[in-house]
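so my prof wants the structure for this chain in the tokens format not the other one, which i didnt know existed until like an hour ago. anyway here's the sequence
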Amino acid sequence: MFRTPVVNSIVVAAALGLAAASAQAQGTVKIGVLLPMTGQQQSTGVQIAAAIRLYMAQNGDTVAGKKIEVIFKDDGAVPDNSKRLAQELIVNDKVNLLVGFGVTPAALAVAPLSAEAKVPQIVMAAGTSIITERSPYIVRTSFTLPQSTVIMANWALKNGIKKVVSMVSDYAPGIDAEGSFKDTFTKGGGQIVESMRIPLANPDFAPFLQRIRDIGPDTAFIYFPGTQAGIFAKQFAERGLGQSGIKVIGPGDLTDDDELNGLGDQMLGMITAHQYSALHDSPMNKAYVAAFKQANNFRPNFISLGGYDGMHVIYEALKKTGGKTDGDALLAAMKGMRWESPRGTISIDPDTRDIVQNIYMRKVEKVNGELYNVEFQTFEAVKDPMKSAKK
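here's what i got, hopefully its the right format
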């Protein structure tokens, strides 16, 4: 039977709402996890999935009298897949929460479904500032890129960096990183001599590296997601640009703990701003790293904390609601939540539903024969600067 787009929309919205309502009556809390377990962003999915499993191993699979059931789906970081799978999880599997979201387009594709079904959407990785504005049921436990890039710009201004080439991936997070760094850096008197945007799919860094060499800035500000950051950093060093005196700075994706050791000593000395290092000096983090390594045989990185802390938010919200799973009750319990994480003290901003967290300046150094991001300065309780600026 033919239906108009308006009728189709009403039918889908009704189905989503009925599915969500039905799920609330069950004795099991179902969590649908959408992650890229294949493709270019696979490392993001692997880290978050490992962190989710570790949290549950440490804290059990029953909360407030409810059994926790996790349903993993591989969306390959393809937004159309994310939307289709999210709809199936809500309507067919009757999930109470949707979590994961390795990239911004995936999070944005699912946001309307989250809003229609009143199902909380916990963003554990994607870092574009606007995400939480697309559904009142989104809570972020990862980061926003401006949290790191604004801190990086201010640090650069105070440390003699004056002439910068900016190079970012040509999609929403890269544009966020470029814009927030540039705005802060130029207002402080710094100069962006050229801004380059690189295609997200199968990037060829060679011509852009040559362009940096030709321009000869004192510093290159870099943002690339996932494994691309490490590939760029390695090629930068291999082509001798490090020896040319050009410094490389950026958010912590550039020196990701998951890949750092494999990139070799050419990474030594690189400075980044970020919310986590596997070497973060706290008893909780030391225990987290040891347990994560034992379970997975690889290091946790900053992405993993989005998954680990995301599960903490869910568990604690269920405790507050006494196991009640309707979206409004869970959201109310999550807003303003504050706790100690392996990355430091963090909280959920009750106004924006974004994470508030410390940002650390780090330098790559060799510690006990391994490469680590060694923290040397802390900026406490950083909110998303882009949303703060709007106020």
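also thought this was worth mentioning. The first strand starts at residue 28 and ends at 35.
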